[in-house]
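Hi everyone, sorry if this is the wrong subforum. Our group has a chain we'd like a structural model of before ordering constructs, and none of us has done structure prediction before. Sequence below.
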Amino acid sequence: MSLAPRAVVVHRTTEYEELLARYGTHGQAAFHLAARGRSVAEIRERHERNLRALAEVTAAVPLRWRRARVERADLDRFLFGPEDVVVVVGQDGLVANVAKYLSGQPVVGIDDAPGRNPGVLVRHRPADARRLLPSAADATAELLTMVEAVTDDAQRLLALNEIYIGPPGHQTARYTLRPPAAEPEAQASSGVLVGTGTGATGWLRSLWLQRGSALPLPAPTSPRLAWTVREAWPSPVTGASCVEGLLAAGDALGLVVESDRLVAFGDGMESDALELTWGRSVRVGVAGVGLRLVG
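Answer:
Right subforum, don't worry. Here is the predicted structure as tokens:
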């Protein structure tokens, strides 16, 4: 007998909850914000809106389903099952945060603050959950391309938007870049970004615009990636001629570390980074799995 689906509601601690954790009470939080010329009222209103959205989504879960709730900070300790339907309530970035922990489970993105969030990944309102959830496991879903980094000691990192490889602070990253079908180039830069079509609406796009690049950015469902080098510095021993490109499925961008320490992290989650020491190599390409986004 197969298990009933499990609705896993993913959320994150609100700014108001973080204020209460820091200052202890609403009154103390209001006092400290007022001293900085800010009001706690708007932050509390967003918190209450989030609670209402979570309550409405929870009430929409079919009665025979199992249920679980996980906070963003606990994602790396939560075990997702094959029968799960993942319901993300919050910002677009929260969908990206959960994507790396999934293996094909459908995801329903619920926007708890319409008009405040872009709604690229959280495409539905809380009221839509009652209609979407009963058929989410079998619903037609977009398969969004993900990016994967694999080190020479078999460490693996997945991301929905982008993977950054570079220094953990503001130092210079030194490495040899090995693009597909091009000569290796020793570089010194602020790091390398490899992104998907979903990521092309965020950090990757800002670098693309800043450079005035003519590189065609991929679409979210396209099995291609775009990569760019941040602030490559030409010197007698480093070059800056190979600073952007595209990766098709099966291609890989290689990088050999020539700094004491670099990191690789995905979707802005620096707390879950790969440590890359001198001589270590990493290959970045299209991941073998994608994110199933409902609607």
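For your construct planning: The CA atoms of residues 70 and 78 lie 7 Å apart. The chain has a mean pLDDT of 95.
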